[in-house]
Design goal:
Layout: H1 3-32, E1 47-48, E2 51-54, E3 57-60, H2 105-121, H3 124-128, H4 134-149, E4 152-157, E5 164-168, E6 174-179, E7 186-193, E8 197-205, H5 224-232, E9 244-250, E10 256-264, E11 271-278, E12 281-292, H6 294-324, E13 335-340, E14 343-348, E15 354-358, E16 361-367, E17 371-379, H7 391-401, H8 403-406, E18 411-418, E19 421-429, E20 433-441, E21 445-454, H9 461-469, E22 471-473, E23 484-485
Parallel strand pairs: 4-18
Antiparallel strand pairs: 1-2, 2-3, 4-5, 6-7, 6-23, 7-8, 8-12, 9-10, 10-11, 11-12, 13-14, 14-22, 15-16, 16-17, 17-21, 18-19, 19-20, 20-21
């Protein structure tokens, strides 16, 4: 972090983040004590179309979504990022953040193990009678595991004067966003639990002029020694033994007054962060951080030491977050707003959305020779009103398990945080069409905004994604200061199937 960024970032990401980790550790305990194997995360699902095999009986699955789907595994290519920050990897494309589907060694291993175990342990009597197809089961489990443990998180911040969008290459299990009223320069922070760590951001007031926050030191004259001196005066990790601060300044086309830092003290979280302002919001400084969960940190430190752990902490920030940073509101000039209940969606400028009513749901839809755009509005099922954590899993499963939608194609998954409100994003490229889809909900309705394009269209793919992901709500207070479930949250027990290995 930068001087004050360091100061404050250390204060916030040390004090608040340390406290938050205690809470998160409880969630981890509860999470991992409810599943038999992590790699399957309660996702052993026996499926044919919309049926699930649960404890020896077939149960019809209620459809949450009804849409024509498709999506695109985008092939991006660009030069690698060249910057003097720990963890920078010249083999990673600057556009890598745009592909939400992981293809690394861990993801490949997960896919191999799922196929092997299902073929080994699938009850032969179930397969033999023609009720199930192994390829269906393998596909479904593979995609659900990608959703839970190998998806990305997209942050779109536009409230309280903010205007930034960035992507972190980790799934969101749970998150808590707070507006801070404690008299500190920081006025908002968020902490999101991922499989191996915590993603965090903080918004701070940036005084006008050339100084970095409240340090009274011009950014141009800011040194690492300044950062360390300020950090030494703060609370948090620097009260611990053997504390360390690694930090520096850097330049990048989309950010200003940019610094990076890694803070570490014995028996405390190692935290890496990027800190910057943006030309469109010069009076706000943004701080984006990541740290390991205690078990993961201990394992990395024991095996590779502090220097290597520092590189590992900073790697997602420099290789994925930094290239993804852009103004969130730039997409407004390429779209138009559509208000539905308490939500405001963006649509393509050429779309003339017409309302169609069907039973107790309705849909705004537009068709052309290049694309179809729609927003489906469905009441929250009665059983989910008190358990909204079920809505996203149902939506994801509905798409995966319905072959006419997924067509057994690889799906890109992401949790999209429009400020404090989470939504689920899915993108599927099928033989002839591609769909970009965002699922959001409030206490009354589930909203599915999709754009389906023909693969021969001339529309800009990134614009379509940005339009679909952008949502505003008048009820934003309902999402702050409370835990919200992301795409990677544990599936409710009554939606989980039995472990294949223990099936009778």
């Amino acid at each position: 972090m930068d001087t004050t960024a360091v100061t404050a970032r250390v204060v916030m990401t040390s004090i608040r983040l340390v406290n938050f980790i205690v809470i998160i550790s409880l969630f981890l305990y509860l999470y991992y004590t409810t599943i038999s194997q992590r790699k399957y995360g309660i996702l052993y699902i026996y499926i044919i179309f919309e049926r699930i095999y649960v404890k020896g009986r077939l149960v019809m699955m209620k459809r949450v979504l009804m849409a024509t789907l498709c999506l695109s595994c985008v092939a991006f290519s660009s030069n690698a990022i060249d910057i003097n920050i720990p963890g920078a990897d010249p083999t990673v494309s600057k556009d890598a953040y745009q592909n939400y589907r992981k293809t690394d060694a861990d993801a490949q291993q997960m896919e191999r193990e799922i196929e092997k175990d299902i073929k080994t342990y699938m009850p032969k009597e179930v397969v033999g009678n023609g009720e199930l197809d192994l390829n269906d089961v393998i596909y479904s489990n593979r995609e659900l595991n990608h959703a839970l443990d190998f998806s990305s998180s997209v942050f779109i911040l536009k409230e309280d004067g903010a205007n930034v969008k960035f992507t972190v290459p980790y799934s969101s299990r749970y998150g808590n966003t707070e507006k801070i009223a404690d008299g500190t320069p920081a006025f908002r922070n968020a902490m999101i639990m991922s499989p191996d760590g915590v993603m965090a951001y903080e918004l701070r007031h940036q005084p006008t002029g050339n100084n970095w926050e409240d340090s009274k030191i011009p950014y141009s004259k800011l040194t690492v020694d300044d950062m360390k001196a300020i950090a030494e005066k703060t609370a948090g990790v620097f009260r611990g033994d053997d504390h360390s601060l690694y930090a520096g300044k850097f330049t990048y086309p989309t950010v200003e007054k940019a610094t990076w830092d890694v803070t570490y003290a014995k028996d405390a979280p190692m935290v890496g962060s990027l800190n910057f302002t943006m030309r469109n919001t010069p009076t706000i400084s943004y701080h984006v951080g990541y740290n390991f969960m205690p078990r993961k940190q201990f394992s990395v430190l024991k095996a590779q030491g502090v220097d290597k752990a520092k590189d590992i902490i900073m790697s997602p920030l420099v290789n994925y977050v930094l290239p993804s940073i852009e103004p969130a509101k730039d997409i407004l000039s390429k779209s138009k707003a559509l208000r539905i209940n308490d939500f405001t969606f963006l649509t393509l400028k050429t779309s003339k959305m017409m309302r169609e009513d069907k039973n107790n749901s309705y849909m705004y839809v537009y068709d052309s020779d290049q694309y179809r755009e729609g927003i489906m509005v469905m009441p929250v099922e009665a059983e989910d009103i008190q358990h909204p954590e079920k809505i996203f899993p149902k939506a994801v499963r509905s798409i995966i398990l319905t072959d006419k939608y997924s067509m057994h194609q690889p799906i890109q998954f992401a949790t999209v945080w429009n400020d404090a409100m989470p939504s689920v994003y899915m993108q599927i490229k099928r033989p002839k069409t591609t769909i970009y889809m965002l699922i959001s909900h409030d206490k009354q309705y589930v909203y599915n905004h999709f754009i389906m394009t023909y693969n021969t269209n001339s529309l800009v793919e990134k614009d379509l994604r940005d339009i679909v992901q952008y949502v505003e709500t008048n009820n934003n207070k309902d999402y702050y200061n409370t835990f919200q479930s992301g795409l990677g949250a544990k599936m409710p027990k009554d939606m989980a199937t039995v472990d294949i290995k223990n099936a009778k």
